[in-house]
Every structure is written in structure tokens, then in C-alpha cells.
Amino acid sequence: MLSSESGAVPQAQGSSQKGRGYAVAAGILGWALDAFDFFVVVFMVDTLAENFGVGKGSIVLTLGATLAMRPVGALLFGILADRYGRRKPLMAVVAYFSLIEIFSGLAPSYPIFFALRALYGIGMGGFWGVGASLTLESAASRWRGLLSGLLQGGYPLGYLLAAVAARAILPVWGWRPMFWAGVIPAALTMFVAYKAPESEAWKQHQVPSFAGILKVVWEHRGSFVYLVLTVTLMIFLSHGTQDLYPDFLKTAHSVPSNVVTYIAMIYNMGAILGTLSFGHTSEKLGRRWTIISALCLCLLTIPAWAFGHSLLMLGAGAFMMQVGVQGAWGVIPAHLNELSPDAVRSLFPGFVYQLGVLFGSPTNSIEYALRDRLGYQWALTAFEGFTILALILVFAVGPERKGRSFLREPVSVEVV
User: Fold this and answer.
1) What is the residue-wise DSSP string for 346-390?
2) Residue numbers of the domain that contains 253
3) Of 131, 141, 126, whose CA–CA distance to 193 is shortest?
4) Which of 94, 314, 320, 371 meets the CB 3.0–4.6 Å disulfide criterion with 308?
């Protein structure tokens, strides 16, 4: 007697998955656009404060409002994607945050601008879970690590493009077109998502009700809490090495502002390199040990990154730090999706991610408070040193399911 398998896997890999490259592209393009639309504000704090007649702190507060609303978007769009499929909610969230960006560029007053940036946070938070699930469910498992890096690399790519726009668009056309620059890429992202096939994994594991989706999350509450802790520490790592670093260079090392902009471009190139290289490496080394290797690189880089005595050393330190930081992050989309329950692969990792962002949002305030006690260099060193060691411990003892199938196992059929 011969044993053969049903067509479940061939179907997923075959005709129903024609055009799955569109699904991968939609996730990567959308996350880069999402990051770009967030970071344009970072480069216009002074300009926006002057335009609206408020202090810089008020503009910084809009960044906090965006971050605070991200879990709302993850919950809303994650549930929709697990109930109705990935493609339509992804197109909807891109259309939503693009419309908010257009209105942001038209804002006549600070209160309206503040409200729009809070509403933008819903879209920013809603995209990642949907985009990551569509991207990784559409990929062969052997490419999951690389595509995880490509997806997460969209974040520093968006940061880099925002820096370029701040040098090319802002001085010529002013602040309003900065918010409109993403309209054409948004239309392209929605078109690509429209051309993509629906996720076969979602078809196999879909839950027939919203209550059923929430029940699945509750049944996995232990792993949910562990992953929220993990992502919170990862937010400490990324935002703690990025957000205040330009100010640190200007304040602690007297680096001119225009030079700081170019250093930011350089270390974001390092970030993109890190996401791709470590994401791909995780297919051979495993998710946890690849992340731990990236964290060790961060630890070794701290002296040059914080205490460098020359511009060259500081630039090299910043570059290598972001290779390590975003190298660790490059593995996270694959790791979170592999640890998530099949039926809630949009909601579960997306909500974990955005709650981590929310709980990690005091990072800059903590570092700034430490600066007053320890000095800038030791404040960054102490905070990031503790964070890196805590992350190494968390990943060393944590679970891993690298390479797990997102599809149901085929049924074995006896053939005479």
C-alpha cells in the first residue's frame, strides 16, 4: 500500500498563491510608508511649533498621542483582519492613514492638528499586524526570516526617507507638502494589496465570530503577557538608541545640526543592513540566538556609540549600534507570527507589538531624567546596558517555533 497526502499544501503553494509577491510587497511598502508619515513630524518640530504658535513641547506631545493610539488601531484592524481576511483591512488601513495625512497638511490650528495626529496613531497601529500576517503567511517558510527583515526594514527606511524629505521638500515647499508626499506611494500600496491573493492560512483557520477571536486570545494569555514584556524591552532598545541620539550628539559632543542629519541617514542605512542580514541569518541560527547575537553586538558597540572621541568614531558607533538594534528587530515579525495562535495571527502579534510601544513610550523621559543625575553619556549607557542584558535573559529562556507551518497539516490517505 502506498501513502499519499491530500492537496492542502500544494493548493496553498500553487494556483491560489499566484501573485503572492504582491502580498509581500504590500506589507513592506505599507510599513515603510507608515514610518515615513510618522517621522516627518520629528523633522518639523520647530517649524510646526512656529506655525501653530505653540511651544516645541506641544508638538512633541502629538508624537506621544500618535504612539498612545496605536494599540487601538492594532485591536480594531487586527480583529477585522482575523474575521474577514487580510487584504481588505490592509487596503482600508492604508486609505485611512493616508487620508489623515492629507488632512494633517491642511490643519488650520494646533488643536485640530493634535486630534489628527492621535487619529493617525490608529492607522499606524493598525497596519503592522495585518501587514506582517499577510506578508509572512504568503511566503515559503524558508524565506520567512529574510522577509521578516525586509518588512521590519521598512521602519528605518521610512525614517531615512523622512530625513531626505526634510532636506529636499521642506526648505522649498514648506511643511504642508511633507504630509502629502506619501499619497502616491499609498495608492501604489493599495493597488498592490488589491492584486494580492487572500491568505490561504487565514482561509484555513478563520474564526466565525468576533467573540471567538477574543476567546482564542484569552486562551493564550500567558504567552501574550510574555510577548508584551519582550516587545516593551525591545522598544526600550530601539527608541532608547534612536530618539534622543540626535540631541545627544548636539549636546554632549557639540555636533552641528546639519551634520547630525547626515549621521542619522548613515545609521538608518546600518539599521536596514541589520534587519536584512540578521533576519536572513535567523533561518540558520534560529530566531532567539540570532536576536541574542545582535544584542551582543549592541553591547560591544556602546563605548564608541556613547563615548567616542571623534566624529568618525561616533558615526561608526551609531552605524553599528543600529545594525545590532534593528538586526534584532528584523527577526521579530517572524518570531511573533510563529509564536501566535493560527486563528488570530493579525490581532495577536499586532496587539502585542503596539502594547509594547505604549508601555515602552516613557523611554525618552526615563533617559532624560537619568541624564540630569548621571550625565548624558552614562545615562544612555546605563539604560541601554540594563535593557540589553534583560533582553538577552528573556530570549535565552523564552520559546521558539522557527519554521512552523501556518497551514494545517495534510491528511494522510491510504491508497491501495
Assistant:
1) THHHHHHHHHHHHHHTTHHHHHHHHHHHH-HHHHHHHHHHHHHHH
2) 16-407
3) 131
4) 314
The Cα 144–Cα 22 span in angstroms is 15
User: pTM for the full model?
Assistant: 0.84
What's the CATH code of the domain at 183?
1.20.1250.20
- Averaged over 72-84, what is the pLDDT? 90
Note whether residue 78 is domain-resident.
Answer: yes
What single-letter amino acid sits at 44? Answer: M
Residue 401 lies in a domain: yes
pLDDT given for residue 140 in this prediction: 75
What pLDDT, in 10s, does the model give residues 336-368?
989 988 888 888 888 999 999 889 888 877 887
Whether 3 is covered by a domain: the verdict is no
> Is a pLDDT exceeding 90 seen at residue 396?
yes
Q: What is the pLDDT of residue 264?
A: 84
Question: How many domains does the chain contain in total?
Answer: 1
Mean pLDDT of the chain: 84
Is 382 part of any domain?
yes
